[in-house]
# Entry
Amino acid sequence: MTHERLVSPLASFGSADLARVGGKGANLGELLRAGLPVPPGFVVTTDAYAAAARAVGLDAKLAAGLGGETAPASPATASSAATAPSAEPAAATASSATPSVAMPPGTSDEPSLPDAAELRADLEGAPVPDDLRAAITAAYTALGTDVPVAVRSSATAEDLPGAAFAGQQDTYLNVIGADEVVDAVRRCWASLWTDRAVAYRRERAIDPAEVRIAVVVQTMVESDVAGVMFTADPVTGDRDRVVVDAGAGLGEAVVSGLVTPDHYVLDERGTLLDWSPGRGEVVVRSEAGGGVVHDSSPGTGGTRERLLTDAQLSVLAGHARAIATHFGRPQDIEWSISDGRTYIVQARPMTALPPPSVPLNRRQRLLGSILTEYIPTRPYPMDVSTWLGFGPAKMMRDLMAELGMAASFENYLREEDGVVVEIVPPAPHPTPRALLTPFKLAHRARTHDINAWREDPMFTRFLRDADELDGLDLPALTWSELLRVPQRAIDLMIPCRELRAAYLPAVGITLGRLAVATALLGRRSLLGDLIGGARTRTEDANQALQDLADRVRAEPELRALFATADPAEVLAAVREGSGPVAAFGDELDAYRREFGRRETATPLLVSPPTLAESPESVVGLVRVLVDQPRGEDRGSRSERALARLLTHPLLRGARARGRMTRWVRAAQQGMAFREDSHFYFTASLPALRRSLLEIGARLEKTGVVNEPFDVFHLRLEEVQEVTDVEAMPAEQAERLRSLVRSRSAKRAELTGVRMIDPARVFPPKNTGDALVTGTPASSGTATGTARIVLDATDFHRLDSGDVLVCPYTNPSWTPLFQRAVAVVVDTGAVASHAAIVAREYGIPAVMGSGTGTTTISDGERITVDGGTGRVTPAS
# Structure
């Protein structure tokens, strides 16, 4: 291997050379080729690192399991460990600590990888061959005599979309002398194996055997002022903004967060829109002889005057536009200004960038309120290609199309690199077919008796097929038979769609008729109780939960267990217990068999577990009900409401009373159909989910995925291309592995990024002293402790008298309303599940708060006014 392949000028590389010079080197080379003012330098390529790694036996140690990374780790696994690298006197280290990473339920959180320290030590002491040392020395000398340089790591997996790797490997500033440069190169190699870099790669499922590192050496820019800029607003996602942070001295102070920088917001032409001064707590400067010094003396860099002039901001904005245009996506750019000249020292794609916030029209906001309620979490590719694409959402799209409404539930997800990045609410609009809709609805209402829907052959056939799917022995199926199961499960939505299309018109007519009648009689307030009288499967499930709570209440041993243990501990005790504890476990299993087909998060996604798979959620609901007296059943409330209605003077006659009673019973049956058809259309969801996990388990055995759930990073059609999982061609297996890795990295990048700005769907009002505002959905005022419940795993945290603050609800959340004094929901409107149930239980509700779960603090005392939609701090 010649030294020309080991060390070459930075300008000789570009985006096609990623494997040789890493992300940073490739991006800087591209900028030089594009004519941007990048300081000159050279690259010690990944070939040099590979030679050094072989010399110390790194490959063999990885194969033996050192570093804890012999295979790509699960995308769900991460470590928050961060160990600061050491720096010798000749050079200063510029790296930032890794932020802690939230661990999903069921994953392990290993604090460190001790074997990585051995790999670092080996590389720091690796012998540098004479030809490589000579090549580095020659390239360094070409920059000038004893010129100060920055020595910067450039890994093959960094500065890429979905994996910025900001601060994960090391940078050494103001390095002077050829020997010091060679030593800094070695330490950059070693930084590939810091705990923080290893943890970052593990989170993004990057194979350690594939990652290499180059080293970029550039002439040091002695900055008067430096910092970072973004070619889009990193908070709002606006693409027509340039955001600049600036600090005095070297940019390290800004990049590593040592200083509160000047903050500038510019339009895309460079006009200053907003500025806030920094504090100048620290100024990082080069030190004579090498290295840097942190100057934090009083008054250092602190000023109320702007660090950047309008002319300098205009130059920076011009460079920002050019760089974003060149790379074709928003960029995160590091820059320096020295003696009036601007330099670009790094550019990488912006990560975790929210979708652009653009206004929505009224129809889009209406559909957006539904989509944000039913898609509360980012769908996986498997969700999109199965249940989300062809299940309940398609059913709604087809029903709306039959009624003459176009663009409903169509093209509402935008994807990048195979991952959903944004919800784009469509704007439904009527077509000429809508003129026939009233006649269609009237005909269906006349020909389909809402009282007889359970006897409909479509329904009985649907239940039979769902039971047959549930009874499949999936592990015993051949690969080809297994691949057919998901489609069978999806096809069961067809009879669901036909049932809803047939009977919902009658539901609408019966409910509309009763609503008009009660309004004309001045008894509209009774409507909620009147239509809640029919028994439904949801009510059956809630009563079964009450029975479980009664059992706990009656048995002192169970009562004590539920009072002191969390749901996971309760389950462990139930599995190991005897007597009443074991009997409770049997009843819990019976509940899961009877009602376990329900979703825990949303009926539109298959990736979240079902209720049968989430016994902790069931235990959490039981715990909520243990200290809550059994409430009056909805049937009794409905009968009382009917009795009150029939006392109206206009309903004294027997015929009038009989007609009104029939109207109420028909409306109750309509609501029962609406509720139960929702309950049943998830009947094939467990079989679909189990079949996908079985597919994942078989892919795991072949090394395509690391755990069965990873199959959700693939699309169904990609899996169906595998004709024989046990004899899969190597190139096909690698392609699938690559898709899993890249998509899991993209999801990791988007962690915490909303799929849509809630302010677009729920425009904020003049809040005054309110914490949040939303749509009034159930009147009344209540004060209590805010309890943030994000999903089913938080059910047990809600105490009697708390205000339930949540992103969404679904029928499985209903028991929480018996304990809460009020509810505040990020999404939804007056017809949403939470609003309907809140009205039934007579508690105030505010829907569509947009940011309730992030603005309101858990444990904060708040007052909810369900009549005005305001949530304020409790006085």
Notes: The chain is about 40% helix and 15% strand. Residues 67 and 115 are 5 Å apart (CA to CA). The longest strand covers residues 341-349.
